[in-house]
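User: Hey, my collaborator sent me this sequence without any context and asked if I could get a structure. I don't really work with proteins. Can you help?
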Amino acid sequence: MFEKVFHTEIEIDAEAEHVWDMLTDLSSYPEWNPMIRSASGELQVGARLRLHFEPAGRRGYDFRPKLLVVEANRELRWLGQPGFPKLFESEHTFVIEPKGDGTIHLDHDFIAYGLLTPLVRKRLEASVIGPFEDMNRALKERSEK
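Assistant: No problem. I've predicted the 3D structure and written it out in structure-token form, which is a compact way to encode the shape of the chain:
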């Protein structure tokens, strides 16, 4: 099966628990998140979130990803399947790695897979990387306050 990983990362001068709290406080997203403008739902594996994705200058849309991993202070992962199983599916991941000095490394990725992935790869790259980096910087700023 075709797969493409769009990878972003950032160093944050805060403890893993604090970054996790910022990342999982869905009700605060409208205050700081430049990519996901609203978010709600129960953070447990198998649950569906309600997200409104609207990076600056782009048309927004709502979607209901299914949570695959909710590991406190470590990983948040959801399946953002847009209704085309095996043709095009996606996962959105946040992995927090404590560095042992009171800081963390955040890997923030989008994984696209399915038969249509090669056809939409360039379009995805243009629409994913910038907004993910914007969200990373906003999470860093909020977490380091």
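In plain terms: The chain is about 30% helix and 35% strand. You can pass these tokens on to your collaborator as they are.
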